[in-house]
Amino acid sequence: MLEGRDTAAVLVSPVANPPAPWTYSACYVDNAFGRVMATELDDNQGLTVESCIAACSARGNTLAGMEFGVQCFCANALTNGAVKGDEGTCNMACGGNAGEACGGPNRLSVYTSTGSVTVFPVPTPLKTGLPGQWAYQGCLPDNVNGSGRTFPNQIINVNDTTVQGCLSQCSAFGYPAAGIEFGQECYCGDVSDLAEHGATLVPESDCNVVCSGDPVHICGGSNRLTYYSWNGTLNDWKTPANTGRYEFFVPGVVVPLLVTLGINNKVSFVEKFGTSEFPNSTGAYELDLSLVNDFSRTWREMHVKSDVFCSGAVVLPDRSARHLVVGGWSLDSTFGVRLYAPDGSPGVNGTNDWEENFQELKLQRGRWYPSALVMSNGSVLVIGGEVGSNGAPEPTLEVLPTPAGGPTYLFMDWLNRTDPNNLYPFLHMLPSGNIFVGYYNEARILNPVTFDTIKTLPNMPGSVVSAGAGRTYPAEGTAVLLPQHAPYTDPLTILICGGSHPDTHIALDNCVHIQPEVDNAQWVLERMPSQRVMPCMVTLPDGTFLIVNGAHQGVAGFGLATDPNLQALLYDPSQPVGSRISILSDTIVARLYHSEATLLPDGRVLISGSDPQGPPPFPEEMRVEVYIPPYLTQGFAQPSFTVDEKDWQYGGSYTIHVTLHQGTTANMRVSMIAATSSTVCNSMGMRTLFPEFSCNGNTCTVIAPPNAFVSPPGWWQVFVLDGPTPSHSNWVRIGGDPGQLGNWPNFPDFTLPGMGPV
Ligand SMILES: *[C@@H]1O[C@H](CO)[C@@H](O)[C@H](O)[C@H]1NC(C)=O
Ligand SMILES: *[C@@H]1O[C@H](CO)[C@@H](O)[C@H](O)[C@H]1NC(C)=O
Ligand SMILES: *[C@@H]1O[C@H](CO)[C@@H](O)[C@H](O)[C@H]1NC(C)=O
Ligand SMILES: *[C@@H]1O[C@H](CO)[C@@H](O)[C@H](O)[C@H]1NC(C)=O
């Protein structure tokens, strides 16, 4: 026996001259404290030292190790405190060469291409030097009794997982709990996930796998998470006692796709006409808010000629504050240009109707899902879309009124490149006079004359698991401008909440904001209490934003979201970042695709629609609700005021007469909310100003904003706030009609407001 063993030992030996630059290092002990080489290749009965070296070399590794005659391992360093064994214990012949030593039981014949071998110590859990306020907690089981992942958000990184990297990613997206598993899987979630999955700490020794990107630290184990939590409050979501409430408002007659408050204080509803679910519809109705208790009189039937489904809309700065709707569903409708001048008054029917004539007036390019914007110079920018329903991109922009001469639409490569994830791009005029555009997960600033890109902004952060999540249709989020306060010298902030991933349909649970015009502009992320695609955000008169509607998962489109998000939120930009969101009330009505939210003149918010076209149980939703914000449910009477003049010039002084009930003019505020039109929760034209004012008794002088960059020409709802409580609004126009839209379009079958004062 003794004789035989000695004989075997001399029969095998390391290869003295392996293929250059490889050299033999030593016989190492494997598995004393865990595997010492990272990657094990498939067993090979024909293994030789040369074949293993070739395989590891091809993988780009600098170490090759042979074990047990037929196993080949590759790595760049040895881990788990590898120590050298007695050379005589690497005594097994290679499967493919009886003369070569290929390790032994738990012994590795190690070769190196660099001439040296780095050995890392036995890894330990990383407990100090953690980013932010992260703290080590211990080892946690995953998938307890098949209950699913302890934490919902999984990021796999086969080669580069580190504790610091995982923790930083989780907290950057607002997750205060993190676990790392099996060396290469990072999970982000909440501390409450532990209880939900029955996960309680297990012995630390259960977590025994080295991190794929950090050879000296532990990253969980098999079904085991190295668990960390954030020490402190990462998301300071408020749960106020006074939440306001949803209330049923009026039975609807259609599911509106475009909802617009007119200067007649009535609400225009326009629905998909021609492709409607309801053959009894004429496509357009107007809601008289003063008659909601008399269903037979509250809706006025109106008429459109083409299908507005998938159009964009703005309120024009002309004397009549006409609603302009551009684009549409298919063929001729995609070229649609439609106008309505709101008339009548509460309780008194108007007689105006939608006007359109495809033969006379149309867009240069057909557009399905375009956006529109009244520019500072008073003309209208129409941008993007596709040539028809889910068709080829229409990556161009054009101006209305259409300039004379040949085609003047312009190709935008960035729209072409990001189709089909850039529909209803977010458009805003910036205080510099340039134009912000947000589309998919990108944003840039355009020159308002040439439409060339002036500045490319960083990409918007997506979800914690994917940078490929987006913010515009179909991964629909929504964008607003935060309020601008006199003297309007602070940089303007754009806030975008919600969205989704166009492929995975995982909805986003965050808002991001940026000041696009500051140097080195960066997105700042705030987590929301729940995921939401298709959110609507409504500016309230106190400068806060109501967030409602949408779904916990999916994307915009028919039947593409099924888990409604019923919870209203309030976003208050006057609070510090991370402390701005309050959780308000829940509705009982699923508001999915084609739902809208619209500020009413009395400070309530009208909530309409849902047009999912299946699957059950989500109906075509006709019921109209209102949200009564907390500022109206504190038992305070609303203040009131009158305005002497309605046609304001930039920088002018205008008199209002106020009646307050709680406070004095010393703690009064004045706010102005731009007229908008909302489709798929895109409030085109939205903007909020808090102008300067001074009072003498109950007579106050409001200073109009200084120029068309701070405040593009248009109509505004003016409110006064008595402490927290807003008045009803009065309409004013600021900046006139510099684009002379009142004389457009000059065709006999269009009614023109003309150019006089209002
Ligand atoms: C059309 O019919 C539906 C019921 O099928 C009804 O709910 C809706 O109010 C009607 N709309 C109009 C405009 O009459
Ligand atoms: C307004 O006109 C509609 C018809 O479109 C009618 O049903 C309604 O009763 C009228 N309302 C008033 C207040 O006259
Ligand atoms: C637009 O994008 C398509 C698809 O990527 C590409 O084939 C085409 O060349 C682009 N058009 C232009 C004018 O760049
Ligand atoms: C506004 O700017 C656009 C783009 O340069 C231009 O086409 C349009 O004619 C301008 N409108 C006015 C009223 O100057």
TrEMBL record:
Keywords: Signal. The keyword Signal applies. Residues 21-114, 133-231 form the WSC domain. SMART domains: WSC. InterPro entries: Gal_Oxase/kelch_b-propeller, Gal_Oxidase_central_sf, Glyoxal_oxidase_N, GO-like_E_set, Ig-like_fold, Ig_E-set, WSC_carb-bd. CDD domains: E_set_GO_C (cd02851). PANTHER family: COPPER RADICAL OXIDASE (PTHR32208:SF105), SECRETED PROTEIN-RELATED (PTHR32208). This is Copper radical oxidase. It comes from Lentinus tigrinus ALCF2SS1-6. The lineage of its organism: Eukaryota, Fungi, Dikarya, Basidiomycota, Agaricomycotina.
